[in-house]
């Protein structure tokens, strides 16, 4: 007697091989058999006639660190087929953390991870994972330890190179996080305080993680004018440390850099030919999204959020001058400045009407001649808790990157306000518009890039593949209809064509409806 039997489906195992007709039997939280089992007895049946039965989708880059606590049903993710999501990205995990740093770190992250009304009861990395398990969540959760967070523990937000004794402390903290369940380490070399880290510093810390079979996931220093140099920089970190490097949300930002993805991908291929394990991740959209205070030059962040807010009010002319002269300004502004930056989230009701409007529009509404003033006013009024969407990429680059053999797909999902549609639509967008409608990838190849490939990178030993003995994380979708519905104007829309989602053997989405089940758990290294 099986607990659940999925019959009549087209099974795609996630390993890139062609689909085949078979049934999938589940007992408890494991797949126990795949074959012709329609006569077998089971407590529950799913008829997958005309549908694909796939491993659960793995979102290897998510910013749900806090929203998983305030919204543990994780609807934005599971409704599109995600059964495991990985947090702690861009160097900015929420653990480990000292009690005295929580207020400022919360403020710093508020435009990225949001600031839901929850109490930060954890301090260690294990404490944070324990909080998630105590809820529990509807999907499984893994996490990196952020090097920015670790640097904060040792050095605060200071903008200088680390001393040898400080690097030793950071190595110990990174190793402890790995012992407590981290999948690896992450950096956001474009964000303070990771921005202040050198190649030597990161490579030294990475060496301490390699013995735990860890990985290094990195938001490179520049995705615009300095793209090629930034790719070379993190390849050098991989070369020196021996750690596998994953370059996240691989892209070429700014119109003058469109087409540069070809050279950037060649650098990845060259490094791999040299034996350096470097791979990439991508979300399938031409707009980026992150915290709005990233437009402020890094030296204003060095004294912490409170000092940054003071500077926004009292050092206005200096900040405006530095923004105008900043060499990587086009990373955020493309060729059309504030017209291409749209506010995606704020905290106060007073400014909610600005969500979905460009900074240039907000300036016009407020009667300001300089949109930079509108930007700085909004950051000060919201105590930095502002998110943005930036229209800055070329569709040709998206397709070129999508075809690269090492790429896996991610949501890079930032919730709150009027979020980027990738939060709700990434995986159906790949499987529908890009695979079915345009043929950019084959179906089995695309499924591999959202299941077994990210599982391999994250060292998830029993996920990402449909096979006996693997965790029963499964998606049943309709290949002829699956598609995203989320748009930039109306992003909070669930996709179509995702009929059933099963997490650890329990049905979380049943015929397109969330059941309320929360069978997820943290997946730790130890």
Chain-wise SSE layout:
Elements lengths: L1 E10 L8 E8 L2 E6 L6 E6 L4 E4 L1 E3 L7 H4 L4 H4 L3 E6 L14 H8 L15 H10 L5 E4 L1 E2 H9 L8 H16 L4 E5 L10 H12 L4 E5 L7 H15 L3 E3 L13 H13 L4 E5 L4 E5 L13 H10 L1 H10 L4 H4 L7 E5 L13 H7 L5 H11 L5 E5 L3 H8 L4 E3 L12 H16 L5 H7 L2 H6 L16 E4 L20 E6 L2 E5 L2 E2 L12
Parallel strand pairs: 1-4, 1-5, 6-7, 7-8, 9-10, 10-11, 11-12, 12-13, 13-17
Antiparallel strand pairs: 1-2, 2-3, 5-18, 14-16, 15-16, 18-19, 19-20, 20-21
Question: What distinguishing features does this structure have?
Answer:
single chain; 526 residues; alpha/beta; TIM Barrel; 9-stranded mixed β-sheet; 6-stranded parallel β-sheet; 18 helices; globular
Structural account:
This protein is of the alpha/beta class. Among the domains are: 75-287 and 393-430, Alpha-Beta Barrel (TIM Barrel), CATH 3.20.20.140; 291-391, no CATH class. Helix content is 32%, strand content 19%. It has helices spanning 67-70, 75-78, 102-109, 125-134, 147-155, 164-179, 199-210, 227-241, 261-273, 305-314, 316-325, 330-333, 359-365, 371-381, 395-402, 422-437, 443-449, 452-457; strands at 2-11, 20-27, 30-35, 42-47, 52-55, 57-59, 82-87, 140-143, 145-146, 184-188, 215-219, 245-247, 278-282, 287-291, 341-345, 387-391, 407-409, 474-477, 498-503, 506-510, 513-514. β10 (184-188), α7 (199-210) and β11 (215-219) form a beta-alpha-beta unit. The model has no long low-confidence stretch (mean pLDDT 95).
Summarize the structure.
By secondary structure, the protein is α/β, with parallel strands linked by helices. It has helices at residues 67-70, 75-78, 102-109, 125-134, 147-155, 164-179, 199-210, 227-241, 261-273, 305-314, 316-325, 330-333, 359-365, 371-381, 395-402, 422-437, 443-449, 452-457; strands spanning 2-11, 20-27, 30-35, 42-47, 52-55, 57-59, 82-87, 140-143, 145-146, 184-188, 215-219, 245-247, 278-282, 287-291, 341-345, 387-391, 407-409, 474-477, 498-503, 506-510, 513-514.
């Amino acid at each position: 007697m099986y607990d659940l039997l999925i019959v009549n489906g087209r099974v795609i195992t996630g390993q890139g091989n062609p689909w085949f007709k078979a049934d999938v039997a589940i007992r408890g939280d494991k797949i126990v058999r795949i074959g012709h089992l329609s006569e077998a007895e089971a407590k529950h049946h799913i008829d997958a006639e005309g549908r694909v039965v796939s491993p659960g989708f793995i979102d290897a880059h998510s910013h749900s660190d806090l929203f998983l606590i305030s919204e543990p049903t994780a609807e934005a993710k599971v409704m599109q087929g995600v059964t495991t999501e990985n947090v702690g990205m861009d160097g900015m995990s929420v653990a480990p953390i000292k009690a005295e740093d929580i207020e400022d770190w919360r403020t710093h992250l508020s435009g990225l991870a949001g600031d839901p009304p929850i109490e930060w009861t954890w301090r260690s990395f294990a404490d944070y994972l324990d909080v998630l398990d105590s809820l529990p969540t509807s999907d499984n959760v893994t996490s990196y330890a952020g090097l920015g967070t670790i640097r904060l523990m040792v050095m605060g937000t200071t903008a200088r190179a680390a001393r040898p004794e400080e690097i030793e402390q950071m190595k110990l903290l990174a190793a402890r996080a790995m012992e407590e369940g981290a999948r690896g380490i992450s950096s956001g070399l474009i964000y303070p305080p990771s921005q202040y880290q050198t190649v030597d510093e990161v490579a030294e810390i990475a060496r301490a993680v390699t013995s735990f079979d860890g990985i290094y996931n990195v938001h490179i220093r520049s995705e615009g004018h300095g793209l090629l140099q930034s790719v070379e920089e993190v390849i050098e970190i991989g070369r020196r440390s021996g750690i596998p490097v994953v370059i996240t949300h691989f892209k070429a930002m700014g119109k003058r850099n469109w087409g540069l993805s070809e050279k950037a991908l060649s650098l990845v291929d060259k490094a791999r030919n040299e034996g350096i394990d470097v791979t990439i991740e991508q979300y399938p959209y031409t707009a980026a999204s992150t915290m709005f205070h990233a437009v402020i030059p890094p030296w204003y962040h060095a004294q912490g959020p409170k000092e940054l807010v003071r500077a926004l009010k009292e050092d206005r002319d200096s900040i405006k001058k530095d923004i105008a002269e900043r060499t990587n300004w086009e990373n955020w502004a493309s060729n059309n400045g504030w017209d291409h930056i749209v506010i995606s989230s704020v905290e106060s009701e007073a400014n909610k009407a600005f969500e979905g409007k460009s900074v240039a529009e907000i300036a016009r509404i407020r009667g300001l001649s300089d949109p930079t003033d509108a930007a700085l006013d909004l950051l000060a009024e919201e105590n930095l808790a502002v998110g943005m969407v930036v229209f800055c990429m070329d569709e040709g680059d998206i397709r070129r990157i999508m075809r690269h053999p090492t790429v896996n797909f991610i949501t890079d999902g930032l919730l709150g306000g009027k979020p980027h549609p990738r939060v709700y639509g990434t995986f159906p967008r790949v499987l529908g518009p890009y695979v079915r409608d345009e043929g950019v990838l084959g179906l089995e190849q695309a499924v591999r890039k959202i299941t077994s490939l990210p599982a391999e990178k994250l060292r998830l030993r029993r996920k990402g593949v449909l096979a006996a003995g693997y965790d029963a994380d499964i998606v049943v979708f309709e290949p002829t209809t699956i598609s995203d519905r989320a748009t930039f104007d109306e992003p909070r829309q669930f996709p179509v064509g995702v009929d059933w989602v099963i997490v650890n053997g329990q049905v979380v989405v049943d015929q397109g409806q969330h059941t309320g089940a929360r069978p997820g758990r943290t997946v730790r290294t130890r």
